[in-house]
């Protein structure tokens, strides 16, 4: 079947107890994006930003991978061709479920980043204002999370994978955040069959060849079983 490229969003981790962003009651209804997810917000009130990500880091550390994460790891392990997982999520549930070489395009809660020299290291459970970079000693440590207005990670590699995809799947994404929302277009241009797996149709559902609706813990394992059966 060739290469399968999978994009995952907050919906795949929701059933592990991690909050989504754009649904009613989601994180962006509780916090202004400008306050906790932009470089300007961090400069204005670093204590607020650290508090927001400290809470999310603690929550993510307690979460367990669900059946959808485990199914994708099984697909990656058992499928005879290449399976690439790209995630917008900043949790490590894919890795905890057994997936390898996951491309975290929005960074990870488990990482810390120096705003001065770009050095990266493993984040402590809680980060604080003025935390010192171990490389340059600047007191400018921040979460290694891509904020609005910043360039996502691994973009050249992701586009290379999309150009070689025979199947592109989007799982648990809103279809509202670019550049990820345009990945289906890139994959389709390369001739890939495209499928969306979501609880509800995304804003870009009409762009896909197939849309499968339902809880991720149900529909993702079923989809993986179908691919493995016909591989």
Describe the structure in your own words.
- It is built from nine helices and nine strands.
- The chain has helices at residues 27-30, 33-36, 39-44, 46-62, 67-78, 93-96, 155-163, 183-189, 216-229; strands at 3-8, 83-87, 103-104, 107-114, 120-122, 141-145, 165-171, 193-198, 210-213.
- α5 (67-78) runs parallel beside α9.
- β2, α6 and β3 form a beta-alpha-beta unit.
- A six-stranded parallel sheet has the order 3-2-1-7-8-9, with helices on both faces. A three-stranded antiparallel sheet has the order 5-4-6.
- The protein folds into two domains: 1-18 and 66-106 and 152-231, TPP-binding domain (Rossmann fold); 26-62 and 110-145, SIR2/SIRT2 'Small Domain' (2-Layer Sandwich), CATH 3.30.1600.10.
- It is elongated and about 55 Å long.
- It is α/β, with parallel strands linked by helices.
């Amino acid at each position: 079947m060739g290469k399968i490229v999978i994009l995952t969003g907050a919906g795949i981790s929701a059933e592990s107890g991690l909050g989504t962003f754009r649904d009613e009651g989601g994180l962006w209804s509780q916090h202004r994006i400008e306050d906790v997810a932009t470089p300007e917000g961090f400069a204005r009130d670093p204590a607020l930003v650290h508090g927001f990500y400290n809470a999310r880091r603690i929550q993510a550390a307690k979460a367990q991978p669900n059946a959808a994460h485990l199914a994708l790891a099984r697909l990656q392990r058992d499928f005879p061709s290449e399976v690439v997982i790209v995630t917008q999520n900043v949790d490590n549930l894919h890795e905890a479920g057994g997936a390898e070489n996951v491309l975290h395009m929005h960074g990870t809660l488990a990482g810390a980043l120096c705003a001065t020299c770009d050095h990266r290291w493993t984040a402590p459970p809680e980060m604080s204002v003025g935390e010192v970079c171990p490389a340059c000693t600047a007191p400018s440590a921040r979460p290694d999370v891509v904020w609005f207005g910043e360039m996502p990670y691994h973009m050249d590699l992701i586009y290379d994978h999309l150009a070689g995809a025979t199947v592109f799947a989007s799982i648990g994404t809103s279809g509202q955040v670019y550049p990820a929302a345009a990945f289906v277009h890139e994959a389709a241009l390369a001739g890939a069959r495209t499928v969306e797996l979501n609880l509800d149709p995304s804003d870009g559902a009409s762009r896909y060849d197939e849309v499968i609706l339902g809880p991720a813990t149900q529909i993702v394992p079923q989809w993986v079983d179908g691919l493995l059966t016909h591989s």
